[in-house]
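User: Sequence recovery, please. Input:
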């Protein structure tokens, strides 16, 4: 039996329902298959790059506004810690401030239009067909 290119199985090939006699040949780390693995360059359009920059700016704005509002709320809690009107006691003051951080973050995340990404991807799919 002569071995040739017609008998070659590339790395990762799956063979079912047959008997195989194989020879394993080590070609080293400089072979084409190994060199081509893991070097992917993803293509992104200029519109996607601009959208990504806009979303990063918006996320930073949300984080900064959350910090600002939480600091202002911490000052408010500190000034009204024993006020019966707001029901803030010294033992639950920290939990009120922590809850406000998460509350502000969730409320401000509504400023970021995530459906814009979905709509642009759906538009690409419709246009490509």
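Assistant: Recovered sequence (129 residues):
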């Amino acid at each position: 039996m002569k071995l040739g290119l017609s008998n070659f199985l590339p790395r990762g090939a799956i063979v079912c329902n047959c008997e195989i006699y194989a020879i394993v040949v080590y070609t080293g780390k400089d072979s084409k298959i190994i060199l081509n693995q893991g070097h992917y360059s993803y293509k992104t359009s200029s519109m996607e790059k601009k959208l990504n920059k806009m979303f990063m700016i918006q996320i930073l704005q949300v984080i900064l506004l959350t910090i600002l509002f939480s600091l202002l709320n911490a000052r408010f809690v500190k000034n009204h810690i024993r006020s019966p009107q707001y029901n803030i006691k010294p033992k639950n003051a920290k939990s009120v401030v922590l809850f406000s951080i998460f509350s502000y973050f969730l409320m401000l995340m509504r400023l970021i239009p995530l459906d814009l990404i979905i709509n642009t991807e759906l538009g690409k799919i419709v246009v490509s067909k």
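The CA atoms of residues 58 and 105 lie 12 Å apart.
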